[in-house]
Write a structure and sequence with these properties.
The chain is an alpha+beta fold and 223 residues long. It has one domain. The chain contains three helices and ten strands; from the N terminus they run H-E-E-E-E-E-E-E-E-H-E-E-H. The strands form two sheets. It has a seven-stranded antiparallel beta sheet with strand order 4-5-6-10-9-8-7, with helices on both faces. Strands 1-2-3 form a three-stranded antiparallel beta sheet. It is globular, with a radius of gyration of 17 Å.
């Protein structure tokens, strides 16, 4: 079990090396994200397009991980990024899948954390400020597909839930802070939770509503 948990942490930051063709397992229809396995839907704040998908099997860990990268872009410049990561147990006799709690990059830049209940399931969430790094290995599938990622601050929301003990889903949605219609600072001190004010505070509040609406919109089939 510890190996499976460690695998999930590792894959949160490392790009998987096996590219797969865009499948119907995860797709976007208008502004609706539709996932076939595990089955759920989620409403997005805007239309996005699939930029890349990867998959890898780990027989010794009895697991498989799929990652899907979606972007909202303007003239090939990324304005928002959605990453859907699905870890699943491949051996039904193996131990139930388990994941660690969401962890922030910095307590000073975390704006909200919590848990909400959707039917029989609980979804953990976290909202924070991050820095987009075009050179980061985790973003190479996007830049490699010909999209440009600006080296800006971005607001990020994460959601995490376990589905029927054999699948876990992590949702990561981030949006460039300079795409909210107002000019905001690129200085980290202006984004600290303890001193957040002015347009930076307004933008963070707008993003929080956007992301919480996404999480609230998640719908699972009736059991």
């Amino acid at each position: 079990m510890k190996k499976l948990v460690s695998l999930w942490i590792l894959l949160s930051w490392i790009v998987l090396p096996f590219a797969v063709a865009a499948e119907k397992e995860v797709e976007i229809r208008g502004q609706e994200l539709v996932v076939q396995s595990p089955s759920f839907t989620m409403t997005l704040p805007a239309e996005m397009r699939l930029a890349h998908s990867t998959s890898a099997d780990y027989p010794t860990e009895n697991s498989r991980t799929r990652v899907y990268f979606f972007v909202k872009e303007k003239n090939r410049h990324v304005e928002a990024l959605l990453i859907i990561q699905i870890a699943e147990r491949t051996n039904p006799k193996a131990e139930p899948i388990s994941v660690p709690p969401l962890k922030s990059l910095s307590t000073e830049a975390v704006y909200s954390t919590g848990r909400l209940k959707k039917g029989e399931r609980e979804i953990d969430y976290l909202l924070q400020l991050i820095g987009w790094d075009p050179q980061a290995s985790s973003l190479q599938p996007i830049t490699g597909a010909g999209f440009m990622i600006p080296p800006h601050f971005a607001l990020q929301g994460q959601g995490l839930f376990v589905h029927n003990l054999d699948q876990a889903v992590q949702i990561r949605f981030s949006k460039d802070v300079q795409t909210f219609g107002v000019k905001v600072s690129e200085k980290g001190d202006r984004w600290k939770r303890s001193s957040l004010a002015g347009d930076e505070k307004k933008v963070s509040q707008v993003f929080q509503k956007i992301f919480m609406d996404m999480i609230q919109s998640i719908t699972f089939p009736k059991l």
